[in-house]
Amino acid sequence: MWDHLSLLLVVTPLIAAPLAAILPFGRVPWALAFLVALACAVMAGMQLWTILTGGPIQYELGGWAPPWGIVYRIDEVNALVAMIVSGIAAVALPYALLSAENEIEKHQIPLFYSAVLLCLAGLLGITQTGDIFNLFVFLEISSLSSYALISLGNRRQALTAAYQYLIMGTLGATFFLIGVGLIYSQTGTLNMADLAARLPEATGLKTVHTGFAFIMIGFALKLALFPLHLWLPNAYTYAPSVVTVFLAATATKVALYVILRVLFTVFPDGFVTNTPAGDLFLMAGILAVLSGSFRAIYQSNVKKLLAHSSVAQIGYMAIGLSFASVAGVTASIIHMFNHALMKGALFMAVGAIVYRVGACRMEHLHGLGRQMPWTFGAIIVAGFSLIGVPGTAGFVSKWYLVLAALEQQQWIVVAVILFGSLLAVIYVGKIIEALYFKQATNPELAVEEAPFLLLAPTWILVFANIYFGFDTDLTVGVAERAAQALGVAAK
Q1: Is 28 exposed, middle or buried (0-12, 13-18, 19+ CB in 10 A)?
Q2: Domain coordinates in residue numbering, the chain
Q3: Largest CA-CA distance found in the chain, in angstroms, rounded
Q4: What is the pLDDT of residues 38-86, one digit of tens each?
Q5: Considering the entire predicted model, what is its pTM?
Q6: Please, are residues 41 and 17 in contact by the beta-carbon 8 Å criterion?
Q7: Residue 188 pLDDT grade (very low, low, confident, very high; cuts 50, 70, 90)
Q8: Nearest 5°: phi and psi at 59?
């Protein structure tokens, strides 16, 4: 079993997905999905521990040696991303029990959990594989299931949002596949390690540069990096609450991982700094921070506000990787981890409000802070983490990002990071003002606190935001090792 851990991490949810679809209505499909997600979280934790103590793992599928066979190769960076994905799934599925029953039609519940498991399998497969075409296969598995999950929202706009994501996602996957084909035409291999060995001799070819550009554009679409982010706000707003939680905390993180892997492992030393790629990521990141933050301020729907905030947070990650330094990539990976915690907690808290009042527009939140104190407390703590208040995980991310910018003498970037945090104060403040300082629309209508099954997963992520604001051994330590595993030190 230990020797096959990497394969089991992908195969377990893949096998369980069709089983969940054929199980009878009720809570049996949920129980199966939760047990699988919990098992994946345990396996991902064991995998990360094994790598931290014993070095990278390589698993040859079917006994076929690379580069002829498909190989799973796991080091610190993809082990950390796998832990984020499976950990969020294990926390989100208890939340899904009531949330999904409230927002999704009863006869669609088994199919919902089947799609969740397929999405989980696809995302974990992307983190495990060392074959760039196999990565495309898992990308399609996760994407197709994501479209289905978003379409299950109880408003008509969910279908439009899913269709928009389908179009943009298909374009992204097509760009990625064209890029892979162009690079394969010049190298004759799809194995990432083999590509890293052969590409230095081919980096002067225009075909390779074109292939690189297609791959970056394809996954920039998946990452929702400005200006390729237009699918994200509607997808997060109109999807069922638990789907928003899961996708916001995992899907963009996996896309960032692929970009990091291609930039710093597949392509040779100096490729990022010798091409416009670094400058383009820097400009896109700065524009994402400013555009996403300003647009968040003017939203009247809280889920859409947080969705635009996610665009800004993705911008911070892009800024970190654009530096092509150990400090910059470390900051990007730290923020990838911490953003999953803070945005997962915020979307869970908003989902708890949706569970009680059936909506999440600002006018529906007036006065709810006093009636739902635990939900309100979760929004305050996670909101402070989003701003970057000291003592929260978000502060650690931005601190290391500022240090990376100072190392590069990027004073404008430092100003953008600080200004983005000030803008976050405004839009998080809008939510707090509506919840606590606004008079309730109907003071006579009593709203109960959210059920324990919604509050418990939310507060697990809230406490994680506080814990990782003080204890940075896991986040910073693993992120630094991950940056070095990517080969950034030589760049």
Answers
A1: middle
A2: 270-491
A3: 74
A4: 999 999 998 888 888 888 887 777 666 666 677 788 888 888 899 999 9
A5: 0.89
A6: no
A7: confident
A8: -125, 120
